[in-house]
Amino acid sequence: MRAVVLVGGRGTRLRPLTDHVPKPMLPIGHRPMIARLVDRLAAAGVTDVTLALGFRPEPFVEAFPHGRVGDVVLHYAVEPEPLDTAGAIRFAADHTGIDGTFVVANGDIVTDLTVGDLIDAHRRFGAEATLHLTPVDDPSAFGVVEVDRSGAVLRFVEKPAPGETTSNLINAGTYVFEPSVLDRIPTGRKVSVERETFQQVVADGRLYAMPTDDYWIDTGRPETYLDANIDLLNGVRAERCEAVASGAHVAGSAVLDSSLVDAGASIGEGVRLTASVVLGGARVADGAVIERSIVMGSVGRDARVRGSVIGVDGAVADHAELVDARLPESG
Ligand code: GTP
């Protein structure tokens, strides 16, 4: 079985982190989220993954110099210009000769979905495409999917008003496609899989869906990226991770509460970290207090940081206070 993983987005909502590191290369529990995703695909029998790349392909190629994650072989398809989700899937599939049933995954989703169950459901449905769905508390900010008792998708309702739909299920970003879906995607322009391609498959009655209540998070925003890390640390999921990666330096008097420190980061004496992620290369000087923040750059002595995102080039001065900020601000 082959898979296409979408990793070519700009990740604007996670700036300035994504000015230097593409979102799917950011770590969850000390490991790039793309590597965790490929492991999950491998457990479903996926042997080959095509990375649908666009913006900033180099870090992926550099991170996996042997072109493998475990036993899974990586293929790279670099778009000459962003083609949006469906355009990217077609480009990647054409580029690497995919001609059988295949899996598609968004590179920024963290979930405990058993991908093999989605493949089995797809075969049972006899579908042309099958989507994984996840429930949300407030569907008004999402595209909601209505499904009948047989699993067939009836319609998509974009940002529903109260009472417009009884469904609280949203597209969870993992699909199984027959290759015929590719023929529906025009080439050479941007095409959105949700807004265009799925609508066509629904019209032909060939789109099905499998809702599950597996752990699921879209890491696209700083708050959700933090939560995905903290949940893995705190044992909310089947697996868990350590707070401090081997190769990180954490001074003996530092206090960590629901926080992660990556290899190559350094935490000084008396530092207090709460619900935060300190990434490789970051420097946190003695006495700094950091809460609900992501740090890639440096935090000075006795500085106070809350609700902030500090990129590689961000530097919080000694004794400074930073609240709900992004440093440096990128345009
Ligand atoms: P934002 O800029 O913060 O919205 O993030 P994003 O660029 O990642 O967009 P979004 O979260 O909507 O994208 C969902 C998935 O599709 C992510 O895994 C993206 O990497 C990927 N993606 C989005 N647009 C493209 C594209 O034009 N080409 C490719 N190859 N992937 C894309």
What would you note in describing this structure?
The protein has 331 residues and is an alpha/beta fold. It folds into two domains: 2-217, Spore Coat Polysaccharide Biosynthesis Protein SpsA, Chain A (Alpha-Beta Complex), CATH 3.90.550.10; 242-327, Hexapeptide repeat proteins (UDP N-Acetylglucosamine Acyltransferase, domain 1, 3 Solenoid), CATH 2.160.10. Helices cover 20% and strands 31% of the residues. It is built from seven helices and 29 strands. It has helices spanning 33-43, 58-63, 84-95, 115-125, 180-183, 193-203, 222-233, and strands at 2-6, 27-28, 31-32, 48-53, 68-69, 72-78, 102-106, 109-111, 129-135, 143-147, 153-158, 169-177, 207-211, 216-218, 249-250, 255-257, 260-261, 266-267, 272-274, 277-278, 283-284, 289-291, 294-295, 298-299, 304-306, 309-310, 315-316, 321-323, 326-327. The strands form seven sheets. It has an eight-stranded mixed β-sheet with strand order 5-6-4-1-7-12-9-13, sandwiched between helices. Strand 10 and strand 11 (153-158) form a beta hairpin. Helix 3 (84-95) crosses helix 6. The radius of gyration is 21 Å and the shape is globular. The two termini are 40 Å apart. The relative contact order is 0.13. The protein binds guanosine-5'-triphosphate. Guanosine-5'-triphosphate is lined by residues 6-13, 23, 52-54, 79, 82-85, 88, 106-108, 220.
